[in-house]
Amino acid sequence: MNTIPARLTRSMLFVPAARPDMIAKAARSAADMVCIDLEDSVAPEQKEASRAHAVQALQTLDFGSRTRIVRINALDTPYAYRDVIEVVEAAGAHIDLIMLPKANAPRDLHFLDTLLGQIEARLSLVRQIGIEAQIETAGGFLWAREIAQSTPRLESLIFGPGDYAASMRMPLEHIGEADAHDALYPGHRWHAVMHTIVAAARASGLRCMDGPSANFKDAGSFERACRVALALGFDGKQCIHPAQLATANTVFAPAPSELAWAQSVVAAYTQAQAEGHGAINLNGTMIDAANVRMAQTLVRRQQQIDARDQPHTG
Ligand code: COA
Ligand code: MG
Known about the structure:
single chain, alpha/beta, TIM Barrel, 8-stranded parallel barrel, two-stranded antiparallel ribbon, 13 helices, globular, binds coenzyme A
């Protein structure tokens, strides 16, 4: 089981590396995590120049307590290895995590792990850079468990709905939205892959995050997508526009009523245990050790949020 650094992960804002103006806005946004993207939001002719933008932003901007992530290109492109070498060699001390898109198998993670280890050794970096793997291909889904166990550097699995639909040849009108195809299907079309990602992540002590919703004007559908992801066990949601951040931050934080419930469960159970009872009646509901574990998850999540404004270390 991995022991990973505690990070606040209600919202992650994607920002194209080709847009230094937007990176500056992302660095002071309400996002818990900022991901500078070298992959799908950057046109091929801008790929190489965008690395320098990413380096410049990481070296010069103050990201406060936000986690700093760089998404490299996929390993089946000619860009990936140079993304890692150029960006991490120049700005490794200012990077918390590298995101690997289209993770297909453990060997993809082994390659990135080795490359990062070599650069860290050359730079004498004292802090290890973590990895987040996007599960967004048929292979990623089938080998999610092996990917989750591939390296202690891995911190998180992330669902990628757009590429997953493409890989599986599932028709999809808007990334992250319910559409006419969903209305036809008697169930949640993404349930199998989403549930698998959460289970693979939890079994290995990792975080997991839901992918983005592309239609940033539709606040209602975004909130629904956040609530579905929360219900399935995800820790947060990727965002592509600042307008989505407040909703993700609210949905993935415990509501005051939930916190009050969690605290009353812990208190009642502690007293019950002192009296020698394992299961008790709390206002007409059975409470046992499982309820306490759920309550403690909420309490821990709130503690992380309360710690958000602590000074950045790194
Ligand atoms: N990060 C930081 N700032 C952003 C932003 C982002 N991802 N998306 C928009 N903004 C800023 C804009 O610069 C603008 O700032 P201003 O008010 O100072 O001018 C403001 O938010 C409103 O933006 P808006 O005009 O509504 O959108 P846009 O047309 O400028 O951009 C997108 C729309 C989709 C192109 C843009 O949101 C984007 O590039 N998102 C990220 C895409 C991405 O990284 N995809 C990869 C993962 S799926
Ligand atoms: Mg993708």
